[in-house]
Fold each of these.
Amino acid sequence: MKKLLKIFTALVLGVTLLQAAAFEKTAKGGGTEIMISSDKPLTPGNNKLLITIKDTKYKDAKVSVKVFMPEMPGMPRMEAEADATAMGDGMYDADLNFSMSGTWQVWVYIAPTDGKKVRIKTSLNI
Ligand SMILES: [Cu+2]
């Protein structure tokens, strides 16, 4: 019975963790690492991205995100930008509109209160 309870608890925990982030990706740049995640699967249109910065030296940083898709045959360059909202504990929320499906370049800017601004480049598929 105890064993069953353990298995059940593990299952519930597992499902909870899965629901916690439908999308997750780490990216590195400027000597630091961030995690980009989303509660919901990414879709064309509005998405809320959560940026987690582990490095405590960026605790009170201003974070902004630029996403873009370079020009494609018969299609202009597409771009969206957002200032992220600080949620505490190195977490930042950014609302971004991805105007179509495909591969998007993601540039995350971290501007510490004191020191050099950092840019982290990555990409994601929608
Ligand atoms: Cu495109």
Amino acid sequence: MKFVDEATITVQSGNGGPGCTSFRRERFVEKGGPDGGDGGDGGNVILRVDQGKRTLLDYRRQKLFKARNGSPGLGKQKHGKNGTDITLDLPAGTLVSDAETGDTIIDLTQVNETFTIAQGGKGGRGNKRFATATNRAPRYSQPGLPGIELKLKLELKLLADVGIVGLPNAGKSTLISRISAARPKIADYPFTTLTPTLGMVDPGFDEPFAVADIPGLIEGAHEGTGLGITFLKHVERTRILVHLIDASGIDPDKPLEPYELINNEMRKYSDTLAVKEQIIVLNKTDLTGTAEQVNHFKTAINREEIHSISAATGDGCDKLVQIIAQKLGQQPVD
Ligand SMILES: Nc1nc2c(ncn2[C@@H]2O[C@H](COP(=O)(O)OP(=O)(O)OP(=O)(O)O)[C@@H](O)[C@H]2O)c(=O)[nH]1
Ligand SMILES: [Mg+2]
């Protein structure tokens, strides 16, 4: 699944502060020697991998990132203050390249990894440094070196944090179009969705997360029946599953049948999938009679957290987004 989040930004490291030309002034000393201090170094621009970041959203909002300039050197050999560095927090997996040449600069993968992308200019030397045996009173000092400016392209291949699984027609595509800007095709026949669609969901209080709408799974999916096997591989890489069930299709005599069918397919496909955390969601609660069907399901499954929504009307969907965001926040990034 290639879903790429992109941003182009400009970074500027700070200029070095100029060195100082100054001479010592003391009482009773007629000609004081040179005492101009060095200028401070310009601040660096540093990239850092932050495990709390999941997207490049911040870098689509702000485009220019500047580190501070170094301060000028001062008399009495005082060194100018170094410019403060600026640190840009990026999600793991961000590929950084030079936007002008297209050359890759670095692939940031390790959490807490840092990389100085633009070194600040060095501060100039004060006149004190230029004093020699033959020139004891130099009247010059160095200017600071300029910082550098770079235009960077940031690219992040998104892995879905959440996969929506379920039988065909459960309403997976309807749900993703309700909670994200993704607009997959929706129709009342099975296998409407042929390839996974990714949508970014913004819970409002935390980083956005990526949800994948997976094509419907059916019996035999693990062996390649239907569209199954191609997509189970992608589901394996998500952190949480939303297991979506059409409540109107629940048979009071065998309420758990559709739920178990999907779980069986996933279990047969891989151990990773079998143990992946699931949020169980019953959909289409706007349809008459579903309240009873939901109850049958709840009684049979004997598990605390069962969520009911109507992807069509939006009922319960905001709450579901909050729950997903909370669960994602509690899990360490692997
Ligand atoms: N009444 C009602 N209908 C819904 C709801 N959610 C989805 N539907 C309908 O159910 C049908 C299937 O919805 P989709 O979102 O295409 O289902 P899907 O799970 O993506 O199906 P596949 O892509 O084929 O696996 C469509 O006709 C939807 O309009 C709901 O909450 N209430
Ligand atoms: Mg679909």
